[in-house]
Design a protein that fits this description.
Blueprint: E1 3-4, E2 7-8, H1 20-33, H2 39-50, H3 53-75, H4 78-83, H5 86-115, H6 134-144, H7 147-159, H8 166-191, H9 194-202, H10 204-231
Antiparallel strand pairs: 1-2
Helix pairs in contact: 1-8, 2-3, 2-6, 2-8, 3-6, 3-7, 3-8, 5-6, 5-10
């Protein structure tokens, strides 16, 4: 790539540089969106109070990799492609919602089983089958939230990322990864405090039912929204 006065120049003579105005608008909007509860947040919180920090880190890496994939796919036009293929889009929503509902049912069933158990309810949280393969859990939970793909497309279009330079687009993806990673890491660190884990252990059956119910609600909402759009 040629340079003029040290500034990279694209083949057509257009400067390849970050549009700081567009990036700042996106960053402010994304920082307001990050704390919004969702399946990814729920997964990290649950792992934080039931598993080792290594498991939380693995799930977080898988989660961030999938979010990066969704952001890149959005920039490459995958959301537009799916919008033009309603049947495929509906199938993806149904599979994503079914996965979240399945995770929720497993958690809720585990909590109900613990209620009838004679085990000490105050015992320290231990890794169980619901926390197995955390890296894969992080990937699947993020992938299941298919609406994130279309949400990103609307945000990117709204603030001008879709029409911005490649450098600005890559910087926006970096903002997503850093913001999400920082928020979820802080949340996990807070949830792994000893008194929080002890509180969860004391009420673990009820908490697992609550976590499971939330996962099922996220899955049902995902399916309901797409079915409603499909039937209109």
């Amino acid at each position: 790539m040629a340079r003029a006065n040290g500034v990279p120049i694209a083949k057509g003579g257009e400067k390849v540089q970050i549009d700081h105005g567009v990036l700042a608008a996106f960053t402010l909007l994304w920082l307001a969106i990050v704390p919004t509860p969702g399946p990814n947040t729920l997964l990290i919180v649950h792992l934080a109070v039931t598993s080792r920090w290594q498991d939380v880190a693995a799930a977080l890496v898988g989660n961030l990799l999938t979010i990066t994939f969704y952001a890149l796919a959005t920039l490459l036009g995958l959301a537009l492609l799916l919008a033009a293929a309603p049947s495929l889009r509906l199938s993806l929503y149904l599979m994503g919602g079914a996965y979240l509902a399945w995770v929720g049912m497993r958690l809720a069933r585990s909590g109900l089983a613990r209620r009838g158990s004679t085990d000490d309810p105050v015992a320290a949280p231990t890794t169980d089958e619901t926390a197995a393969r955390p890296f894969l859990q992080g990937i699947l939970t993020a992938l299941a939230n298919v609406q994130a793909l279309f949400f990103l497309a609307s945000i990117f279009a709204g603030v001008g990322i879709l029409g911005a330079s490649p450098a600005t687009q890559l910087a926006a993806i970096a903002v997503i990864v850093i913001a999400n990673g920082s928020y979820l890491s802080l949340l996990a660190w807070l949830m792994q405090r000893e008194h929080v884990r002890a509180l969860y252990a004391r009420y673990r059956p009820a908490m697992e039912v609550a976590f499971g119910t939330l996962f099922m609600l996220f899955g049902a909402r995902l399916i309901q929204r797409e079915l409603a759009a499909w039937l209109l």
